[in-house]
Amino acid sequence: MEDKKNKRIFWNIWTSYATYYFGKVNLSIVIPALLCTHKDLSLINVGLISSGFFCAYALGQFLHGQISERYNPFVYISLGLIGSAVINLILGFSAGFFTMLFVGEIVNGLFQSMGWSSTVRANAETTDNPEKSSTILGTAYQFGNSLAWIVCAFAVGQWGWQAGFFVASGVMAVRGLHLFATRRQAEVVRRKVTERIKMTLSFPIV
Fold first, then answer.
1. Taking CA atoms, which of 1, 87, 153, 196 is between 20 and 30 Å from 98?
2. Do the beta carbons of residue 159 and residue 106 sit within 8 Å?
């Protein structure tokens, strides 16, 4: 019985992290349609928007790796999904304005970076075989990335660039709310700052 419960928890974690990729890859799908629709947007603008996202994501990985230690990892993962969903919903109404897209993707990058460190921690605290589960957990990246490309590309092709943001927002919101509602209580372990930094730097960024 306990084994089945742990498996349900694991797949809850797995699907949640896979869902994060709807908010990571949708911009790459939206950009070509944006450039065709809004002629005032340049390739330089698009490059700055993408760079803003990835810089915020990289910085957030380091910060959240330490901050998330103080909170329930399941709550942290769900809040990242919900926050990213809200930002993507707003970006769907951006009407191609560079400033709104630039600032929005920076904030989106910060929310997106809330997923990985808490996912690793949640998995470590709920499995009897961390090596095996960590290997399987790594497949969430490939699956989530591929599914997000297919779904978002279909949405943009059918309904326009706004759909790339709206569909990603809807998927992440549903998954984030479900994870929050079914969250598992987790013990919060207080660690020294130097230990948290060491653990954060040991995580691969995906």
1. 153
2. no
